[in-house]
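Z., the sequence and structure:
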Amino acid sequence: MNDWDIVGHEWAVELLSRDLAGGRLRHAYLFAGPPGIGKRTLALKFAQVINCLSPSPLPPVPAGEAAGVRACGECRPCTLIAKGSHPDVPIVHSGVPSSTTSSRRPSTATRNSPGEGRSIKIDQVRDLERQVSLAPYEATYRVPILLRFHEATTGAQNALLKTLEEPPPQVVILLTADSPDLLLPTIVSRCDVLNLRPTSIAKAKEALAQRRGVAGERAELLAHLSGGRLGWAVRMSEDEERLAQRNERLDKLLGLIAAPRRARMAYAEALAKRPREEVYELLDLWLTWWRDVLLASSHAGAPFANADRIEIIRGLADRIDPERARAAIEAIRKTGEAIDRNANLRLALEVLALDLPALK
């Protein structure tokens, strides 16, 4: 079912649309899943459906069930929500005040500095609470969307609890997070949680080709690289520079594997001066690479994420056993966790650079 133009999360579309059609709207929903999986897209679509002036029914359902609905996509609320400029659908994320409605993705700058610099602040949540305490300005419901709420400070999360416990009428709060485990349990327990999963590689490839006009081989490559995270694949398909950057980063990683200790330390020092968002992206890429090496060295049948470099991966797997590949994956994960805790960036990257497998 693609009636919301959502690929891979048809079950979520059905559940949400029937909640609305059946008069069972919850006061808060949490969309959880890895970056690029489509949480933000689903939240915006749901906000449109809730406030659409001309909704239409989804295909027939079994007797006794309320038919779901879809947004027209053309009325004033649908148009404004799609643009991120609807007064009753404020979008809150790191570094952007809640009073500023915006459809823009969080900028790289919001993750450049540790701690508070990449967090949703308590003042943003309090500002939002003042907004939702008022009747909707022009829509049926106020639908605030809090993106990447796992980046909210503990104070900000606690501040939202009062609204979740005593929700104002005509308000539906939508949260997104990479995982429910990254939020306070009291937040999660007061939301309807929808855990989104990657779609199949085949479905991602089909969507890229048919909906985005991406050529066959390129669609297949991006589908594999995304691991079924269609939002990530779409963004990559629209930015040739990012794909070229990915290739450069993999080339650098290959050089690092064969590099001496001094060169590794120099690379870590240089990387520590880059924006943190770039560091996170690099770590994500390295994880996919060492996972592929592990699959190859273990002779597993799962598809490779870096499908365009299969021969290089197999060559590495002949020289790096599964235990060393697993150790690399664990080292990268621990580095990401350390950075999340605002550890010294240079030190964390230096430790990682020395922990990565080396070829003699």
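Strands lie at 28-32, 56-57, 69-70, 91-92, 145-146, 173-177, 192-195. The longest strand covers residues 28-32.

Let me know what you think.
H.
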